[in-house]
Each structure stands twice: as C-alpha cells, then as structure tokens.
Design brief:
By secondary structure, the chain is α/β, with parallel strands linked by helices. The chain folds into two domains: about 60 residues; about 120 residues, no CATH class. It is built from three helices and ten strands. The strands form two sheets. A five-stranded mixed beta barrel has the order 3-5-6-9-7.
C-alpha cells in the first residue's frame, strides 16, 4: 500500500509563498479601494441632499453651492476629448467673476459636440449679465492626457485636462480651487453630463477582490496537489 506524504520541494514552496502574498495583497488592496469609493459616494450623496449654500472660501468638494456674478465671455476653456453618447466633444469652462469672492470661479456649463472640422471650435459665446449659478463643487484629477501641450495659447483655449492646477496656468488671476459643475437649470447651460464621483463602483472593487482571493485558493489546491508524494 502506498503512503502519501507532502513534500512539495523548495522551488514549489517559494513559488507558492510568493504568489500567495501577491494575490492576498491585491485582494486586500481592492477591498480598501472599495471602501474608499464607498466613502466618496456617501459624501457625494450626503452633500447632494442638502440645499445649496452660498459659495465661500471654506466650501468643500461635492458641496452644493450658489454664487452670483457675471461670466467672462472672452476667456473660456474647452476641455478636449470629452466623449458623450459616443460623440467626441468638449466640456465648456467659463470664468465667473463673483460679487462675493476675490478669486475667479470656473463654471462647467456642460458639453458641446466637436463637429466634423476639428480646426473650427464650436460657438460658446455667452451673455455677460449678472447671474446666479447653482451647482456642485468638484476637483478633477489630472487624469490621462494625449498631448504634452496641455493648453493651447489662443482664446478660447483648448485644454487636455480640467485639473485646476493645470488650468490656473492659463489665467493671470487667481482661480477658486474647485470647479463648479453647473446644474442644468442654468440659463446658458449646455448639454448636462451627470456627475460621476468615482470611475468605478465599490461593488466592482469587491468583485476584483473576490477574484484575487479565488486565485489564492486555487493556488493552495495546486500547491497541495503538486506536493503530494507516493511512497511504498
């Protein structure tokens, strides 16, 4: 009768330990990412349920605010490579000269299609009369860019990013540290794109974590199977 002993050997053991650490670490990392995204969604949803507050220096990300001022029609920015419903276009950022703040607020008025001729920019002109804008504050990350030249020279400028740190280089005056995503009730609102506070839902992160842990369990079975030795 053959006896089964467990002797996986040094190479298989090292292989098992290394990839076990990798799979478990990746699974834990995805769980942490999911928890982080949950907190972001909770903060966004909680802020969205509150009535808009007057914009001030202490205002924070995702807060619904209102601000009075007039738009600067001459110094607008188009955010390039913005796809909406499968169509290429631009997000339009218009400076708002506020009555109550020393800094200029960049207002995201919405999306416009790029059209067939990329050399001709769309008409984004706007009335400069006093207006009150309602919206949500956001602070976009730099993200993936397709060009080393992030912002063109002539107005209206075309930018590869809507990150404030990038955009402030285009202006001689100080910008408010958040973008104001205007609500579609704005008189001069363009095509409104619903805000997505995260690029991936928590459930997807948890799903990826489950995959990594499943791979770890499969590795355990393979390690046990490969380490079995039959002796007489």
């Amino acid at each position: 009768m053959k006896n089964i002993k467990f002797k996986p050997g040094a190479k298989i053991t090292i292989f098992f330990i290394f990839f076990s650490i990798v799979f478990i670490a990746l699974g834990v990392w995805q769980i942490e990412r999911g928890q982080s995204k949950s907190k972001i969604l909770q903060a966004y949803n909680s802020a969205g349920e509150k009535d808009p507050q007057a914009l001030q220096d202490s205002s924070s990300k995702w807060q619904r605010v209102s601000v009075k001022g007039k738009f600067d029609n001459k110094n607008q920015i188009l955010i390039d490579n913005t796809i909406y419903k499968g169509i290429a276009g631009y997000k339009v950022l218009t400076p708002l000269i506020s009555n109550s703040l020393d800094r200029i607020v960049l207002v995201d008025r919405g999306w416009v299609p790029a059209g067939n001729n990329r050399d001709k920019l769309p008409d984004i002109s706007i009335d400069e009369s006093i207006i009150e804008v309602y919206g949500t504050l956001d602070s976009p990350e730099l993200g993936f860019v397709l060009s080393e030249e992030l912002i063109t020279k002539d107005w209206p400028k075309v930018s590869q990013s809507k990150n404030i740190e990038v955009l402030k280089e285009a202006f001689e005056y100080e910008l408010f540290p958040f973008l104001l995503i205007a609500e579609p009730t704005l008189k001069d609102s363009l095509e409104y794109i619903k805000i997505t506070p995260t690029n991936m839902t928590p459930s997807k992160h948890y799903g990826y974590a489950l995959q990594w842990f499943t791979m770890f369990l499969a590795l355990c079975f393979m390690f046990i199977w490969a380490g079995r030795k039959y002796e007489k």
